[in-house]
Recover the amino acids of this structure.
């Protein structure tokens, strides 16, 4: 796994011709390898890889920091974030925050599951912090239109305490949310514009 | 290799070779629309989540996120801070992101911990010029610190470790040696506060892994452990999450702060100051709050008479954290053996309260006579410009205050010409 992370970091380096963390390149060039996976238009096409479009700048800054300092453990992200300064993180987040929000998942939504997800989101008060339209603000991420598989993964990680948040709110909330409910929440949020 | 990694590897390598657009992701398979079942009455909330119909009100109840990077000294709000007449405040150290618990070494080193981040710092004063060094990193919520006879003990989320002879090795710190790790891994209230008891044991909180729930047998307690990690035992139960405690300088009794549950109401419950008079006492969580009412979900069939009552109520959702009894000589006599308590400041309340240091005065019998604000000004226009976490009395009797929002440590002194606007 570690070797693979190195290979990918090397691939990223080859892609841009410079290591990610050197100062000379304009920020857009340095973000190119990020967007290769996360999607250039804010929408990820890759399983397990979140869409970054429409995310609040504060949230992006914090996540980049958590990856760099290995507080949020995803080996590839930890590897590619090494060497960036705090100012680099701020600049990257400011640029990424301009990506357009991803469109909601398409297809004919199952009305019953949408209703179940919406009810769960409101019962658990997701809308308090993630805002009424689930677009997020400050340290709280946008959920609307996020990849369904990523939402499931993130919620399961919070519930199992394997993902660090910037605070413990998500672990608090998920303490009494079942896996079946996680699937419904993700179904609803991925289809929410 | 997990499928997740395979996907990541493929997408980067594909991009590298520029062969084809990355992963043609099939559109979500359209699912046959099912008829909507008859509407069943569903509860508007789940346990521990509130009933708040007003979206504008709800918006004011989300958690307060601290700044990810420590603010430079000249951007700290020192001029807005207020103290009683005759006291001064200065920035002791800045740029320490998420500065949390404070302890002082025998040689005067100030140790500073993290909760959200991964580091433990040492602040060294050389003739008034202070140097900040990282002495441990890559740690898991290393909130709790104890210094004893040359050794720094660090309580992380799931273990306690030690750095021996640390003050002589600040530039080349040893690797932490784990002495105890019998903790569940939980993010909710998983960080630990730690103190050294008069019995020379490490006392540590083991918080409830939730806002409100029946905690596992291993949680919702204060626990004590010998310095070598042996002999762990429960001290008291019914503690939701204590992030500050200290022993009275005269009676040697343990007093601890405890954070009340969230999402009950704007004004209930108040956070508590508790006093331990006997090992094995139960302080009420999750059944009874603030010693006088039962929980709306967990309290049925219980009575507050079953549990120990707090010695003081310190404000609803106020976030009472670090506390120390004042044993120094610099401050006026009335502060002798009084308890300075940091109130981090409420988040689960539309009208914020706390964001200050209060001082509680005790009666001879150990009860609390009264308490009042001491250091204020971190709360401005219902928003925080700083959030106090811990207090620590220095050898000269001055008082250090950590702020995990701006990443700073302040020092409060008395006398020598007041420069701070008295409150």
């Amino acid at each position: 796994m570690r070797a693979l992370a190195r290979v990918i970091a090397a691939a990223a380096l080859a892609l841009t011709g410079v290591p990610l963390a050197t100062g000379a390149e304009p920020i857009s060039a340095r973000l190119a390898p990020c967007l290769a996976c996360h999607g250039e238009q804010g929408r990820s096409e890759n399983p397990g890889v979140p869409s970054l479009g429409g995310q609040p700048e504060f949230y992006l800054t914090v996540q980049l920091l958590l990856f760099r300092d290995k507080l949020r453990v995803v080996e590839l992200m930890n590897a590619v974030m090494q060497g960036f300064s705090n100012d680099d993180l701020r600049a990257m987040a400011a640029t990424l925050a301009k990506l357009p929000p991803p469109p909601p998942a398409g297809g004919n939504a199952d009305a019953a599951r949408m209703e179940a997800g919406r009810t769960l989101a409101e019962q658990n008060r997701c809308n308090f912090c993630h805002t009424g339209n689930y677009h997020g603000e400050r340290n709280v991420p946008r959920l609307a239109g996020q990849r369904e598989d990523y939402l499931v993964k993130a919620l399961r990680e919070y519930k199992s305490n394997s993902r660090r948040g910037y605070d413990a709110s998500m672990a608090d909330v998920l303490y009494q949310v079942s896996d079946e409910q996680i699937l419904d929440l993700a179904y609803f949020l991925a289809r929410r514009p | 290799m997990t499928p997740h990694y395979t996907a990541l590897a493929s997408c980067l390598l594909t991009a590298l070779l520029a062969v084809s657009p990355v992963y043609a992701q099939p559109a979500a398979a359209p699912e046959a629309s099912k008829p909507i079942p008859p509407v069943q009455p569903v509860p508007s909330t789940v346990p521990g989540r509130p009933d708040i119909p007003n979206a504008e009100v709800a918006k004011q109840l989300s958690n307060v996120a601290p700044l990810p990077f420590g603010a430079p000294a000249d951007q700290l709000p020192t001029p807005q801070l207020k103290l009683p007449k005759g006291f001064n405040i200065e920035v002791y150290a800045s740029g320490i992101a998420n500065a949390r618990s404070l302890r002082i070494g025998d040689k005067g080193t100030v140790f500073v911990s993290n909760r959200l981040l991964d580091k433990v710092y040492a602040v060294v004063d050389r003739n008034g010029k202070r140097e900040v060094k990282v002495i441990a990193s890559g740690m898991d919520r290393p909130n709790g610190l104890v210094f004893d006879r040359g050794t720094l003990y660090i309580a992380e989320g799931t273990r306690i470790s030690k750095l021996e002879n640390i003050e002589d090795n600040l530039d080349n710190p040893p690797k932490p040696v784990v002495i105890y790790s019998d903790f569940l891994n939980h993010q909710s209230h998983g960080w630990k506060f730690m103190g050294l008891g008069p019995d020379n044991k490490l006392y540590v909180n083991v918080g409830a892994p939730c806002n409100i729930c029946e905690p596992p047998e291993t949680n919702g307690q204060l626990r004590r452990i010998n310095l070598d990690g042996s002999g762990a035992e429960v001290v008291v139960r019914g503690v939701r999450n204590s992030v500050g405690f200290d022993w009275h300088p005269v009676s040697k009794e343990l007093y601890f702060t405890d954070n009340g549950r969230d999402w009950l109401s704007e004004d209930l419950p108040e956070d508590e100051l508790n006093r331990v008079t006997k090992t094995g006492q139960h302080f009420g969580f999750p059944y009874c709050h603030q010693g006088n009412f039962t929980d709306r979900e967990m309290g049925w069939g219980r009575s507050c008479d079953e549990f120990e009552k707090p010695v003081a109520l310190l404000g609803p959702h106020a976030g009472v954290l670090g506390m120390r009894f004042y044993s120094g000589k610099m401050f006026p006599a009335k502060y002798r053996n009084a308890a300075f308590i940091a109130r981090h400041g409420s988040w689960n309340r539309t009208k914020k309260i706390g964001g200050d240091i209060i001082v509680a005065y005790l009666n001879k019998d150990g009860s609390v006579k009264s308490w009042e604000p001491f250091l204020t000004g971190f709360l401005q226009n219902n928003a925080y410009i700083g959030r106090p976490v811990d207090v620590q009395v220095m050898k000269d009797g001055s008082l250090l205050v950590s702020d995990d929002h701006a990443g700073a440590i302040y020092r409060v002194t008395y006398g020598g010409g007041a420069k701070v606007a008295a409150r």
About this structure: The two ends of chain B are 62 Å apart (CA to CA).
